[in-house]
């Protein structure tokens, strides 16, 4: 029997090209794109009557308690817990350990449904002074910094695709879209950025 | 454009939602006494009110929860929202 090893391949691997594009003036692109690769993404959906036990168990596993406040993201230096619905979170970190196993060590299926979604998303980081203006072209969300604050994530329709927008800091957003939409999404969002000039930096 | 106040996410544009049907009618029971006529009525016969109406909407591009919405069919004004099992007034017995 032939053994094959499947190596991880980023969603934008085939089309990703670093450099400056669009209408860049004074060598300052309005938007900078970086693909966030090799992330561990674990979906945790707590059973309603077990929510307190489940959030305590997640805290024990990753060092931060996921918030029950809508849209709130709780983060440590390495891991983030994004609120994506009532009693449901995405636990995200750069691949360095078996995150699902870490979570399952403190949790069991009596508390929550735990699903590895690491390969399901294409995550694009978008920053720069025009970042929110690019997103405004494709969503009905209020992106004003006073309303959509740092440390919040909202699920919405972005360029007609389901997306999670995580405001990492002012004018810096991480966008999660379904992996199979990754190339299409990247195409539309770079077109939307052309008028501001954009830079594609090396993936991280 | 209709803006719907999701009980979990807050006010969002209707493009994030999918209409999920009339929330006034009550599903007929599954007992032996339930007749085909009751199912026919439930499935096909709808009031067509001019004014406040109860509807289900699914926050499909959001938190994916079902939301009950009281909406004025004449003005599109959203009068009240709540979780799918909320009583917003106007439900049939």
Would you kindly provide a written description of the structure presented here, covering whatever features stand out?
The complex is a heterodimer of chains A (204) and B (93). Chain A has 204 residues and is of the alpha+beta class. Chain A has 2 domains: 19-37 and 119-200, Probable tRNA modification gtpase trme, domain 1 (Gyrase A, domain 2, 2-Layer Sandwich); 39-116, Alpha-Beta Plaits (2-Layer Sandwich), CATH 3.30.70. Chain A is 19% helix and 35% strand. Chain A has 4 helices and 12 strands. Chain A has helices spanning 51-62, 99-106, 131-136, 182-193, and strands at 19-21, 31-36, 39-46, 73-75, 79-85, 88-94, 112-116, 121-127, 152-158, 161-169, 172-178, 198-200. Chain A has a 7-stranded mixed β-sheet with strand order 1-12-2-8-11-10-9. Chain A has a 5-stranded antiparallel β-sheet with strand order 4-5-6-3-7, with helices on one face. The longest helix of chain A is centred in the first third of the chain and has 12 residues, at 51-62. In chain B, β5 (66-72) and β6 form a beta hairpin. Chain B has a single domain (3-83), classed as 2-Layer Sandwich (Folate-binding fold), CATH 3.30.2270. Chain B contains 1 helix and 6 strands. Chain B is globular. With 93 residues, chain B is mostly beta strands. The interface between A and B is medium-sized, with 13 and 14 residues.
């Amino acid at each position: 029997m032939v053994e094959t090893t499947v190596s991880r391949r980023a969603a934008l691997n085939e089309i990703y090209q670093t450099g400056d594009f669009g209408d860049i003036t004074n060598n300052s692109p309005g938007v900078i794109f970086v693909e966030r690769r090799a992330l561990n993404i674990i979906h945790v959906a707590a059973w309603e009557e077990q929510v307190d036990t489940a959030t305590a168990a997640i805290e024990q596993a990753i060092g931060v308690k996921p918030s029950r406040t809508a849209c709130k993201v709780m983060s440590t230096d390495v891991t983030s817990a994004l609120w994506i619905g009532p009693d449901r979170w995405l636990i995200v970190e750069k691949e360095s350990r078996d995150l699902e196993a870490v979570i399952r060590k403190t949790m069991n299926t009596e508390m929550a449904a735990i699903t590895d979604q690491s390969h399901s998303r294409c995550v694009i980081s978008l920053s720069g002074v025009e970042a929110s203006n690019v997103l405004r072209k494709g969503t009905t969300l209020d992106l004003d910094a006073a309303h959509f604050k740092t440390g919040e994530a909202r699920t919405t329709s972005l360029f007609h695709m389901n997306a999670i927008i995580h405001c990492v800091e002012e004018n810096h957003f991480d966008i999660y879209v379904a992996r199979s939409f990754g190339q299409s999404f990247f195409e539309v969002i770079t077109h939307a950025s052309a008028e501001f000039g954009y830079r594609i930096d090396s993936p991280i | 454009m209709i803006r719907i106040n999701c009980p979990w996410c807050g006010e969002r544009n209707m493009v994030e939602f999918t209409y999920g049907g009339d929330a006034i009618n009550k599903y007929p029971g599954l007992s032996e006494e339930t007749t085909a006529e009751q199912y026919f009525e439930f499935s096909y016969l709808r009031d067509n009110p001019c004014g406040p109406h109860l509807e289900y909407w699914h926050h499909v591009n959001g938190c994916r929860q079902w939301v009950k919405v009281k909406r004025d069919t004449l003005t599109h004004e959203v009068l009240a929202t709540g979780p799918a099992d909320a009583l917003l007034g106007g439900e049939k017995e």
